[in-house]
Design brief:
Length: 68
């Protein structure tokens, strides 16, 4: 297994704002509030978390290939 990346740039689908965030190593994040427009992002139905839905890097559990 390679290096686990803990930073992901998450992009709000409503306003387009991009922000780099640090992801938790052992958990999935199901909700995220955009720091610009206040939109509450929720994980898409086919993904485990907001980072897998809206980020440029998948969450650490997915990177480790373990179940979220």
């Amino acid at each position: 297994m390679g290096i686990i990346r803990l930073r992901s740039v998450i992009q709000c689908p409503k306003c387009g704002n991009k922000k780099e965030e640090i992801m938790p190593e052992n958990a999935c994040v199901h909700f995220y509030e955009c720091t610009v427009c206040g939109e509450l992002l929720k994980a898409k139905p086919d993904t485990c978390c907001v980072f897998c839905s809206y980020g440029d890097v998948t969450c650490p559990p997915k990177q480790k290939r373990i179940k979220c």
